[in-house]
Amino acid sequence: xxxxxxxxxxxxxxxxxxxxxxxxxxxxxxxxxxxxxxxxxxxxxxxxxxxxxxxxxxxxxxxxxxxxxxxxxxxxxxxxxxxxxxxxxxxxxxxxxxxxxxxxxxxxxxxxxxxxxxxxxxxxxxxxxxxxxxxxxxxxxxxxxxxxxxxxxxxxxxxxxxxxxxxxxxxxxxxxxxxxxxxxxxxxxxxxxxxxxxxxxxxxxxxxxxxxxxxxxxxxxxxxxxxxxxxxxxxxxxxxxxxxxxxxxxxxxxxxxxxxxxxxxxxxxxxxxxxxxxxxxxxxxxxxxx
Length: 290
Known about the structure:
Elements: E1 2-6, H1 11-22, E2 26-30, E3 38-39, H2 46-49, E4 54-57, H3 69-92, E5 99-102, E6 104-105, E7 116-117, H4 127-138, H5 140-144, E8 148-154, E9 156-158, H6 164-173, E10 186-187, E11 189-191, H7 192-204, E12 209-213, E13 219-220, H8 221-232, H9 242-258, E14 262-263, H10 266-270, H11 280-288
Parallel strand pairs: 1-2, 1-4, 2-3, 4-5, 5-8, 6-8, 7-14, 8-12, 9-11
Antiparallel strand pairs: 10-13
Helix pairs in contact: 1-7, 3-4, 6-8, 8-11
């Protein structure tokens, strides 16, 4: 299978490309600075899409960092413009790909407290919800053409390195980890291993529409912090007040750290996907022991 991946240099894209190649698929990566078997965005044309069996669109500016107006503009534009360009190329191809896997995120649902959110839950309010709604809408012309379109809505992806887990592990190792705000917000999560396995599952099975990419076992943030401390053998009881997070990190800190997303991965479960890492403490031990 020939698979085109945008955002191929990111955490998820690079891991997915490795997994696809290891099982014998051909990967064409799209990058602003292409190397080796990658192409530039200028090369994403209908004729290129004629040679592609599947597209995985993961492109987008990182949401990490303080959300200035220019940063928010880049977050939105990088997703919507890239997806619109890709959708136009797919719908104009003579022999278009059979499937588009179009990224989105749990932020679409907004802060819903203890409400369990399955794929039929309504979109919420706020910046991230607006971004996700426009992001998904930009891919709609592909679905309207009758091409199978599946929309993974990613929760927190746990991986070793500079991402969310790496930052939390660092402060925990320094013995200053603990609840963020009141710690009662729900954090839905999934390991990078299961993230990649879920994307392969979506490529290989006849699944369409939104799919929550999360384990069936979300955790309250204070429980997440405690289990991370257990794995790292460090105390994890130093709270970080919500006002301090909002003061230092602004809207980004509020949205990503203090709001509550309790996802139900019903579409994955109903399609017989089996998680390798369903429980948080086991997943953390596997990731952080590498």
